[in-house]
């Protein structure tokens, strides 16, 4: 009976030791992966175009010029300080609007409707 107890104790110790080595290996691999991950380079903007240091700085409203009844369906930041807005409704086709909140202006819009007939004929004749 004494041999069985000793065997159980040794096996328990091996299980604990194995779990410890497994955790160590996972942590070491995670550190290696984080160290080898390339840091994305962002072009530095001139001081005049950088966002204010305070993220809660007040700002003037930005008017997008969208018709009444328009709904904001999606909002995301592009990582360069611009906002990408997915807008629907208002009696016009769905569109994607790019806004620069630092400058307080609308940069442009991408309409998601069909190409006008005049452009289709020009595009097909160019081919």
Could you characterize the architecture of this molecule?
- The protein is of the alpha+beta class.
- Among the domains are: 1-36; 70-116.
- The protein is built from two helices and four strands, in the order αββββα.
- Strands 1-2-3-4 form a four-stranded antiparallel sheet, with no helix packed on it.
- The termini are far apart.
Computed structural class: alpha+beta
Strand order of the largest sheet: 1-2-3-4
Largest sheet: 4 strands, antiparallel
Ranges where pLDDT stays below 50 over 5 or more residues in a row are: none
Number of strands: 4
Cα distance, first to last residue?
90 Å
Count of helix runs: 2
**How big a fraction of the residues is strand?**
15-25%
What overall geometry do the principal axes of the alpha carbons give? elongated
Helix-strand sequence: HEEEEH
Task: State the share of residues found in helices, binned by percent.
Answer: 25-40%
Radius of gyration, Cα only, in angstroms? Answer: 29 Å
Mean pLDDT: 80
């Amino acid at each position: 009976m004494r041999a069985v107890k000793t065997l159980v104790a040794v096996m328990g110790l091996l299980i604990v030791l194995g779990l410890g080595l497994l955790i160590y290996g996972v942590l070491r691999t995670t550190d290696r992966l984080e160290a080898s991950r390339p840091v994305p380079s962002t072009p530095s903007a001139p001081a005049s175009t950088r966002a204010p240091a305070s993220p809660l700085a007040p700002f003037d409203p930005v008017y997008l010029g969208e018709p009444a009844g328009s709904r904001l369906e999606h909002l995301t930041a592009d990582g360069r300080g611009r906002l990408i807005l997915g807008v629907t409704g208002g009696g016009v086709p769905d569109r994607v609007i790019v806004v620069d909140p630092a400058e307080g202006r609308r940069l442009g819009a991408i309409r998601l409707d069909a190409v006008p007939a005049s452009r289709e004929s020009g595009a097909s004749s160019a081919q």
